[in-house]
Design a protein that fits this description.
The chain is α+β, with helices and mostly antiparallel strands. It has two domains: 139 residues, 2-Layer Sandwich (Fructose-1,6-Bisphosphatase, Chain A, domain 1); 117 residues, D-Maltodextrin-Binding Protein, domain 2 (3-Layer(aba) Sandwich), CATH 3.40.190. It has seven helices and 15 strands. The strands form three sheets. An eight-stranded mixed beta sheet has the order 4-3-5-6-7-8-9-10, sandwiched between helices. The protein has a five-stranded mixed beta sheet with strand order 12-11-13-15-14, with helices on both faces. Strand 8 and strand 9 form a beta hairpin. It starts with a helix and ends in a 9-residue tail after the last helix. The relative contact order is 0.13.
């Protein structure tokens, strides 16, 4: 039996909304660190795990047999439906921990390895970004489109940092070279929402090394369906870097990343 991107989007929206309400309930109480992962600053809260457990339970009920890849619980194999869900139960956990209103539930659906539906729901504000392959992107149901790309020197660029101290040092050095060449840099702290900000035109571009599929699967689809391009590039620290910008300025933005040392140039790869 085949399934359409729109049908998967309906499931993603339902599940993301339920998980967002659960995370909001946790936010109204005391938020504590439950564990750390790659470093002492890479934190996990009880809410992260509870949110992913809820998402997995609901997907098993609504889409039995699908595979699931989640940030906290890893990958669960499916039964040849061709569908895999890519889930971030809280993207922007540090923001959540500190009460900064920039954290989201991200739910994406792949069919045979291609992302075809995605939802990013900002828990703090209730704003929902969504997209289906070929069906466009929306914010709270209203169509989204990237803003007309300004000259790069007038571009607001979003970025992020890894959790490894050495990687942060490399990124900071390169960003110091990038900063004089653009309008400004912002570090908002949630990859999925950063991509959605490019989609809605509240930022002009985004670049970050070391992001994972659950960070960007849904948000990158929203951005592409809104008129942006995305690509995984060789980052300066040795991990892949995700770049996103409106299609008309994308190639020049990629060149600027290499010039600044955020990515390896073609003759370095």
């Amino acid at each position: 039996m085949t399934v359409t991107p729109e049908e998967l989007l309906t499931v993603a929206r339902e599940v993301a909304a339920e998980a967002a309400e659960l995370v909001a309930e946790h936010a109204r109480g005391r938020v504590d660190v439950a564990d750390t992962k790659s470093s002492s600053v890479d934190v996990v809260t009880v809410a992260d795990r509870a949110s992913e457990d809820l998402i997995r339970q609901r997907l098993a009920e609504l889409r039995p047999g699908d595979a699931i890849l989640g940030e906290e619980r890893g990958e669960t194999a499916g039964s040849q439906t061709g569908v895999r869900w890519v889930v971030d139960p809280i993207d922007g956990t540090v923001n959540f921990l500190y009460g900064l209103p920039e954290y989201a539930v991200s739910v994406a659906a792949e069919v045979d390895g291609e992302v075809v539906a995605g939802v990013v729901r900002n828990v703090a504000t209730g704003v929902e970004y969504s997209a289906s392959l070929g069906g466009g992107a929306a914010r709270d149901g209203r169509p989204l489109a990237v803003r007309t790309a300004p000259p790069l020197q007038e571009s607001l660029v979003l970025t992020g940092f890894g959790y490894d101290a050495d990687q942060r040092a490399v990124q900071a050095t390169a960003l110091a070279r990038l900063l004089p060449k653009v309008r400004d840099l912002r570090r908002m702290g949630a990859c999925a929402l950063d991509l959605c900000h490019v989609a809605e035109g509240s930022a002009d571009a985004y670049a970050e090394e070391g992001v994972n599929p659950w960070d960007y699967a849904a948000g990158a689809l929203v951005a592409r369906e809104a008129g942006a391009r995305t690509a995984m590039l060789p980052g300066a620290y040795g991990k892949e870097l995700l770049a996103c910008a409106p299609a008309e300025s994308f190639e020049r933005f990629v060149e600027l990343l290499a010039e600044s040392g955020l990515t390896l140039s073609r003759d370095q790869t």
